[in-house]
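step 4 of 6: structure.
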Amino acid sequence: MVDERSKGTEEADLSSPPLSPSPSPLPSLLSAKALSKNFGGIRVVDRASLDVRQGSITGLIGPNGAGKTTLFNLLSNFIRPNDGEVIFAGEPIQHLQPHQIAQRGLVRTFQVARVLSKLSVMENMLLAAQNQTGENFWNVWLRPGQSVREERHHRERASELLESVGLAHMAQAYAGALSGGQRKLLEMARALMVRPKLILLDEPAAGVNPTLINQICDHIIRWNQEGMTFLVIEHNMDVIMSLCDRVWVLAEGRNLASGTPAEVQHDPKVLEAYLGQ
Amino acid sequence: MQGYIVFLVIFTAIYAVFGLGLNLQWGYTGLINFGHVAFMVLGAYTTVLLSLRGVPLIVATMVGAGVAALLGLLIGFATLRLRTDYLAIVTIGVSELLRLIALNEQWLTRGTFGIQRFPLPLANFIPTMSVRILMMAVLTLIVGMGYWRWWKWLRRQVKDIPSEALLKSAPTALGYVASLGILVFGIGAIAKHLKSSNAIPDWGLGLFLVAAFAIVIVSYHILTKRVSTKLSAWSSGLLLVCHFLLAALGLWIFGVSASAIYDYDQNPAKNGLMFVSVVTLALIFWGLERLVESPWGRILKAIREDEEVAKALGKNVFWYKLQSLMLGGAIAGIAGALYAWQLTTVFPKNFEPLVTFNAWTIVVLGGAGNNTGTLLGAAIFWAYEAITRFILEDIIPLNESQLNAFRIMVIGLLLMGLMVWRPQGILGKKEELTLGR
């Protein structure tokens, strides 16, 4: 399924769009080209490239400090890149504000799940719905009926999503009362509530017990089968192996390898980066 | 008495409006505004100066609110992209800046001379009987709706408690509150007698007061502990009794205010202003409650909790913070107009930073992020003012300036006590404090 390529430290290779000769019929949904970011004098992300195909679950792995989370921040523009280009659904997005990127359907989650703890679980979900009439100050006064109707509709959908991740019984509780694993589930359900095209998951299995990891994986696979595309950062190789169609490896801010999980796992360069010699 | 109650109602309403603006900015959106009085200065001066030039009062007030909102826009553009601490610094700076401009630009504001004789709302209004009845009906409607909300809230508080247990604990609670009241009143009466007769030296009187109150506090503390272990519904009974007593006090104040409207001609300026400020407060409260319950308000709360999350979910955080700052500013501007009408003279000295911190006291006291709490905070603040101003000087052996310092000191002590025992404020939710991020 994936072409063999000898990319990695070679720079010339990286500037060309990856995967162009791919036999896959699926178009690319998100592609980053030669993204770079310096913090002070340190180059945290160095001409990293990435491609996520429509309908796939793509993995992003790398040793600690490889710049994976920074790359996520660059993709969603929470941090502005020094250089490079991000194309999402056929349009460049690196000049957009983070909220505009989310509005276009690229939604991220956070490494440590961030829920709005003093709002209820349901309010967390409702917040995520896009284009709500009642979000406009004047519409609160001018179109109350429409706002209420939409709210009812969003509430139904939120209930369904909460039901599917097993949080329905917590809907009226404060989100801050949820356990770590439940927060991860809420964050994912909330991301789906946006009705995005692509969800960036930052370590969905980190700090979660093995049973819940399996549940989370099942949810991701089910949502993927329903048509959602995912880009997943994960350290747990079992999760990567069971979820991903394709994996990108990052080390010291650079692309190291990419391919199917099996290919990447046996790539000597990857082993070296992870284990040292 | 009637005149003083009217005065208290006006000030409570003005500070409640002012506090509601701050509560929107800080309580709901998490914006730390230490210069809330800046919006009030603009609202007050704009309204007064325009009305002196013949602009109708309602238009002048709206323009004043608009100018205050513009200030919010300016401050917001300058600082909202920075961290919140900078907003606190900039706002306190801006408020002092505006006060100093008002002090020095004498061609506009007449500086320390102040502006007098500007038009007041409904001051030359001579209502017929039917109009006065209509005004009283409006007041009754507002108070009635308030009581209805209050009653519904109280019902929810005690709905899980069996009524027999409540019936059992309520008389005990009533006795408890009444005996405490009589004791405090008795101590006050004795102290008043001692002070007026000069029977004992000042230090003796001070010692007597401190010792008497210490004994009362300690013994009632012990009593509370013993009773609460014996009576199951003790705290609910106490809650009910306190609320019924407060409700009765509220009804009495309402009665006095309504009679003031009936005797409108006795002091048309004040009675009219009372009507205007209560109606304004009711409208703003209703509007804000509606807003914070809407999806719009939900975004503000989300920003208060974690603005990165709001951004990640596609919300334009900057724009919503700006809206909150502007709307809170406009509300403070309206409060400024009411304040100017109440003072009938505006001096720059009326707008010192203390006014901002009074608003903070009110919001913190009632519970941040709770509009009803802000109303309650304003009522407590002015009740405290009234009680201490008239009663303390009779019983405490201090001269006037010492007494003023003492009153502020007690506010500080009360706030510290509140932060220790009820950090969420009177109506705040305890659970919200213990939730982790």
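step 5 of 6: annotate
 - The interface with chain B takes residues 76, 78, 97-100, 102-103, 107-110, 114-119, 123, 126-128, 130, 132-137, 140, 147, 151, 174, 176-177, 190, 194 of chain A (CB under 8 Å).
 - Residues 144-164 of chain A form the longest helix (21 residues).
step 6 of 6: archive
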